[in-house]
Amino acid sequence: QVQVVESGGGSVQPGGSLGLSCTSPDLTLSYYAIIWFRQAPGKEREVVSCITSNYATTYFVESVKGRFTTSRDKSKNTVYLQMNSLKPEDTAVYYCRTLHYWGRGTQVTVSS
Question: Which helix (H) or strand (E) holds 37?
Answer without folding.
Answer: strand 34-39
